[in-house]
Design a protein that fits this description.
The protein is mostly helical. It contains 15 helices and no strands. The C terminus is likely disordered.
């Protein structure tokens, strides 16, 4: 390995410093929300909480986890993520595999490719999409949150390009041994494509978990709201009295303010993605870069 010059070393140091400051700037808001969620209502109201809890308490989390509305929306999001992930991954793989073939193998490849790419540039619009969902009888159902985005074309392109980067000799050897397209896909392509699959998995999980706008449009009853739609509603409406339904909850509000209550729910909403990301991080950049090299 060649020795770096003094200028290159200085440049690298400045890069590390700038990136560290940028990472810290992104981390500060979350640390503040986390500190507020663990602080007492009086400390949060007085503005004493910065990056560390003041008068540490779990009252906001106990109150949030005891709310029926929060638990209902949390379960809706879990179901949405599970169903959406299965549908998105099956359709993404089913579309990406044939589109990764050459024209000599799949003559209609270009027509299908443009069919999907055009949807990235033009869409039906909000009102036609809503009318379609309503006519299909999907309002207030989980399918309304999954089917409109069942084929994420960006993920298809990433996986398609990754498939095209795999050595053709492996596929030819499989065909010589009598393997079908399905066997080649499941026994060769998918095991070799773990970085790309992990990358699009992260996109799918985050997309479904953070989705809130479609919940507002397609769900008429609050009990069918996904978690992010519910959180947006309580963040806009700061009146906690709306959620007081029992004397026990009224007693719990003595230790909870609207600010600590919101912070606890926001962090609970972000926790599942924060827990999943470290397991996919090592595949993320590799899959993203390799999937976008070849057109």
């Amino acid at each position: 390995m060649l020795n770096r010059t003094t200028g290159e070393k200085i440049f690298a140091v400045f890069n590390y410093i700038i990136l560290a400051l940028a990472a810290f700037a992104c981390l500060v808001p979350m640390l503040n929300v986390l500190a507020i969620s663990f602080s007492s209502s009086s400390a949060a109201a007085a503005g004493y909480v910065k990056l560390w809890p003041v008068d540490f308490t779990l009252a906001s989390y106990r109150y949030a986890l005891g709310k029926r509305e929060f638990l209902q929306s949390f379960l809706v999001s879990i179901r949405r993520v599970a169903l959406g992930y299965i549908v998105n991954m099956i359709l993404t793989i089913s579309v990406a595999y044939p589109l990764s073939k050459d024209k000599s193998t799949f003559r209609a490849r270009d027509y299908y490719a443009w069919f999907f790419i055009i949807t990235m540039m033009f869409n039906g619009g909000l009102i036609p999409t809503f009318m379609t969902v309503r006519k299909l009888g999907l309002l207030d159902t989980l399918w309304a949150l999954v089917l409109p985005g069942a084929v994420p074309v960006f993920n298809v392109i990433l996986l398609m390009n990754f498939f095209r980067e795999l050595p053709k000799e492996i596929e030819e050897a499989a065909y010589i041994d009598g393997a079908s397209h399905w066997t080649t896909l499941f026994r060769i392509y998918l095991p070799l494509s773990l970085p790309s699959l992990a990358t699009i998995s992260l996109f799918v999980l985050v997309g479904h978990w953070n989705g809130w706008f479609d919940g507002m449009i397609y769900m008429n009853r609050p009990k069918n709201w996904p978690l992010q739609t519910y959180l947006r509603t309580i963040l806009i409406n700061p009146d906690l009295s709306h959620y007081q339904t029992s004397s026990e909850e009224l007693a719990g509000l003595r230790e909870v303010s609207e600010r600590t209550f919101k912070s606890a729910q926001v962090f609970l909403g972000a926790a599942p993605i924060l827990a999943v990301y470290p397991f996919l991080q090592k595949y993320f950049m590799k899959g993203l870069v390799m999937g976008s090299v070849k057109g």
